[in-house]
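sry for the spam today, last one i promise. struct tokens for design, 334 residues
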């Protein structure tokens, strides 16, 4: 296998529609449009949004609605889900929603599917009700979704209108090895959440590649890895900006979630040694640097992973600094 180079590697955006301290959710959506338009000009391949619920710092709960909003304000970039948590919905409803999106924005919509609830267990019960254990049906529901979106369902008693015949590209998302087996056996592209669940990343992509079965939609394995990047014109400024990300993850570790906080000069006195260790473990695949150091880091990452596409998520408080971070990433990867 020939070694991949940074230049020519497709690069994409994951947007959690983060809500920022001192700003409104409307500001968040405006910033997402601004970032998507910026990413499109910079040559980013796709712009994905993730389904989460009951989190004060994440506003992408109505994921398909937000995908339509972003697609409507851009022209060429692919827009999709990273992902839709399929057990929260029925396959027919998702087929209709994404079939509608694909009809309005042809050849631009992606459908990434996850198994987790995207929230806590109490909220998951409110979402799923009697279907609380529907995640057990995930493999069968993916097949149903493929059927609804395919060309051969026209004589079925239940059809997705719109949706049928759109063949919206389906991805399997994962943060564990279980999803790797499913993506491999179905012959689907595989997107791994290495930005928050780095522990099983290498094992999962190895399982996926070794067990991959070619399908009508994909002849060889395709791995997309999502990573955190905080880039700035200097290493020191990137380190300062990254404190917002570290405080966000500290909120996840301590279960004391807050809106994205402004950066600070130092995390000293903000977190304990135990909290710091837990956050740093979650941030294994996080790149905080100026342009030169970032290029070295990403080259090393690509050498060790041989991923086919890099997806970047950047939790940066100041919107202009966030736009600049994505600009630097594009400069490094072009």
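last one done:
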């Amino acid at each position: 296998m020939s070694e991949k180079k940074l230049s020519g590697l497709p690069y994409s955006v994951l947007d959690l529609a983060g809500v920022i301290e001192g700003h409104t959710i409307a500001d968040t959506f405006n910033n997402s449009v601004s970032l998507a338009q910026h990413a499109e000009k910079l040559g980013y391949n796709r712009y994905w949004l993730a389904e989460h619920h009951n989190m004060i710092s994440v506003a992408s709960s109505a994921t398909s609605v937000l995908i339509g909003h972003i697609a409507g304000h851009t022209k060429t970039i692919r827009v999709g889900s990273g992902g839709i948590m399929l057990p929260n919905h029925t396959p027919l409803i998702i087929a209709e929603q994404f079939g509608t999106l694909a009809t309005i924005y042809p050849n631009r919509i992606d459908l990434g599917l996850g198994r987790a609830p995207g929230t806590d267990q109490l909220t998951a019960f409110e979402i799923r009700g009697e279907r609380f254990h529907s995640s057990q049906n995930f493999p069968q529901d993916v097949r149903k979704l493929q059927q609804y979106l395919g060309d051969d369902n026209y004589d079925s008693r239940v059809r997705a209108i719109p949706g049928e015949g759109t063949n919206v590209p389906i991805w399997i998302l994962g943060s564990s090895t279980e999803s790797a087996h499913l993506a491999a056996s179905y012959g689907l592209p595989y997107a791994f959440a290495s930005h928050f669940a780095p522990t099983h990343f290498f094992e999962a992509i190895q399982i996926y590649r070794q067990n991959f079965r070619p399908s009508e939609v994909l002849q060889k394995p395709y791995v997309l890895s999502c990573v955190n990047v905080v880039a700035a014109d200097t290493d020191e400024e990137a380190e300062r900006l990254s404190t917002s990300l570290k405080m966000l993850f500290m909120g996840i570790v301590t279960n004391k979630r807050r809106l994205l906080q402004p950066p600070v000069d130092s995390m000293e006195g903000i977190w304990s040694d135990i909290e710091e260790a837990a956050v740093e473990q979650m941030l294994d695949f996080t790149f905080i640097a100026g342009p030169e150091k970032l290029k070295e880091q990403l080259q090393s990452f690509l050498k060790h992973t041989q991923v086919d596409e890099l997806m970047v998520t950047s939790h940066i408080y100041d919107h202009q600094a966030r736009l600049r971070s994505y600009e630097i990433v594009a400069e490094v990867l072009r």
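The first helix runs from residue 25 to 41. ok im logging off now
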